[in-house]
Design brief:
This protein is an all-alpha fold and 210 residues long. It has helices spanning 9-34, 41-48, 52-58, 62-87, 92-108, 112-121, 123-150, 160-174, 177-183, 187-202, 205-209. It has a single domain (9-209), classed as Tetracycline Repressor, domain 2. 79% of the residues lie in helices and 0% in strands.
Length: 210
């Protein structure tokens, strides 16, 4: 009987990731800080010490690189939020503090030039951002509100699912490139302000005290 050959696909994927991750990290720094409109593929290739041909072999366009940067961002945020909800599954005050602090740290990376470019040059990509953001908020804060109700720190007269829908609706209405620019906010300030308003109505007196 012929011995079945083991697939080396995981090793190939790991090697491919090792080659592309430095590109994604460099693009992430520049895109989020300065916007992606003014950052050229020539600039990135020169900084990384590779040819533009090599860069385009991994990412055929700047749009493809932008999508990879956003995927990398969401992966790091999801990993952090999952760690927090896992480590503080039955500690509402600690989970709330860590979730808010972690979310705001991640949002602080995104500066106004990136928001401007998303509005002007990539509104179609922001639709994907909205969908993935909603999934993470629903998963992380949904568990948090349910735990808060169990411990008497979140109101029980309003369903947790309804409170999450209010939070999602406010985030979608406010934390988007057009409205953020109109109001002169950053994503970090916009999200933190929404959270304060939602929590003011969601927490019980016990929850506010703690």
């Amino acid at each position: 009987m012929r011995r079945q050959r083991k697939s080396n696909l995981p090793e190939q994927e790991h090697a491919a990731q090792a080659r592309t991750q430095p590109i994604i990290e460099a693009a992430r720094r520049h895109f989020f800080s300065h916007g992606f409109r003014g950052v050229t593929m020539d600039d990135l290739a020169a900084e990384l010490g590779i040819s533009k041909k090599t860069l385009y072999a991994h990412f055929p366009s700047k749009t493809a690189l932008l999508e990879a940067v956003l995927a990398d961002k969401f992966a790091s945020v999801r990993k952090e939020l999952e760690r927090i909800t896992r480590e503080h599954a039955h500690d509402f005050p600690a989970a709330l503090h860590e979730l808010l602090a972690g979310t705001l740290r991640e949002l602080d990376e995104i500066k106004p030039p990136f928001v401007r470019d998303m509005r002007q040059k990539a509104p179609h990509i922001f639709k994907t951002v909205e969908r993935r953001r909603a999934e993470m908020i629903e998963r992380s804060f949904g568990k948090l509100f349910i735990e808060g109700q169990r411990t008497g720190m979140v109101r029980k007269d309003i369903p947790a699912k309804f409170m999450i829908e209010v939070l999602l609706g406010a985030v979608q209405a406010i934390v988007n490139p057009a409205k953020i620019q109109e109001l002169g906010l950053t994503p970090k300030i916009g999200f933190s302000s929404i959270i304060k308003i939602v929590l003011e109505g969601a927490l019980t007196a016990k929850g506010r005290k703690i």
